[in-house]
Design a protein that fits this description.
With about 270 residues, this protein is of the alpha/beta class. It has a single domain (about 10-270), classed as TIM Barrel. The protein has helices at about 30-45, 70-85, 100-110, 135-145, 170-175, 195-205, 225, 250-270; strands spanning about 10-15, 50-55, 90-95, 115, 125, 130, 150-155, 160, 185, 210-215, 230-235. It has an 8-stranded parallel barrel with strand order 1-2-3-4-7-9-10-11, surrounded by 5 helices. Helix 1 (about 30-45) links the parallel strand 1 (about 10-15) and strand 2. Helix 1 (about 30-45) runs parallel beside helix 2, helix 3 packs parallel to helix 4 and helix 5 packs parallel to helix 6 (about 195-205).
Length: about 270
């Protein structure tokens, strides 16, 4: 946790992997997937990101819970390649839609320092159907073979609706106090959509000191408003060419946004 948030707000860039073996849109060559992942990782690192996260974004439609062995194997290969390109930056893994066990296994095998879990506590109605959080098994599995890996967990994650009629404040409190999440992620309604500032303030009040991150939609237009409210942001779409999630990372967009992170960090330091 200390290395991930050594600089606040932490700028975490997303490496959206092309479709992996077994996915409907896989192009037939892992070399192409790895080449794109490495190019994006280099652009994110050189542009000023403080950490990276790798996810199997191209594997739509996603499995709701467990992914097959070929996905785990391919993700591990890509994560290792990204780690080498990151040159010491912390990196993490998100196995979509919600395979926390696989994410922990990949982290243990590749040296990743954190994982993202979309549904850690509670239940959510998603485009993959109903997904239940598995905090009870995830925490025990982490203790067994990946004790140093940080759990960053979503509250009211994008592309989903909570089954219970709970407030975001209650969801965050449960994540931290009952689910033992190390950090909390708040998103907008979908990929590329930002959460409202009021929601971030509500989440902060309930986070009990745990780091709070924006998990979607942060861009050059809203960063100056949202970053002072959080400890970091996971940024993907805003860093892509033409602002399209499926495109390659645009180094200029990364550098421009990194300047905003640096300016917010300076203001925070000056207020202390």
């Amino acid at each position: 946790m200390s290395s991930l948030f050594a600089r606040r707000p932490a700028f975490i860039g997303v490496v959206h992997l092309l479709p992996l073996p077994g996915a409907p849109r896989f192009g037939g060559a892992m070399e192409t997937v790895i080449r794109r992942a490495v190019a994006d990782a280099v652009a994110l690192r050189e542009g000023g990101c403080h950490a990276l996260i790798v996810e199997n974004y191209g594997d739509v439609p996603f499995f709701p819970r467990r992914v097959p062995p070929e996905t785990v194997a391919a993700l591990a290969v890509c994560a290792r390649s990204v780690a080498e390109s990151a040159r010491g930056l912390p990196f993490g893994v998100n196995v979509l839609r919600n395979d926390a066990r696989a994410a922990l296994g990949i982290a243990a095998a590749t040296g990743a320092s954190f994982v993202r879990i979309n549904v850690h506590t509670g239940s959510a109605a998603t485009d993959q159907g109903l997904i239940d959080g598995e905090a009870c098994s995830t925490l025990r599995e982490r203790a067994r073979f990946a004790p140093s890996v940080t759990l960053l967990c979503d509250a009211h994650v994008k592309h989903a609706l909570p089954i219970a009629p709970e407030s975001l404040r209650d969801a965050v409190a449960d994540l931290v106090r009952r689910g033992l999440a190390d950090g909390v992620i708040v998103t907008g309604r979908a990929t590329g959509a930002a959460p409202r500032a009021a929601l971030l303030e509500e989440a902060r009040a309930a986070a009990d000191g745990a780091p709070l991150l924006v998990g979607s939609g942060l861009d050059h237009e809203n960063a100056a408003e949202l970053l002072p409210l959080v400890d970091g942001a996971i940024v993907g779409t805003a860093l892509k060419r033409d602002g399209r999630t499926e495109n390659a990372v645009d180094p200029e967009r990364v550098s421009r946004l990194a300047l905003v992170f640096d300016e917010v960090a300076r203001r925070v330091v000056n207020r202390r």
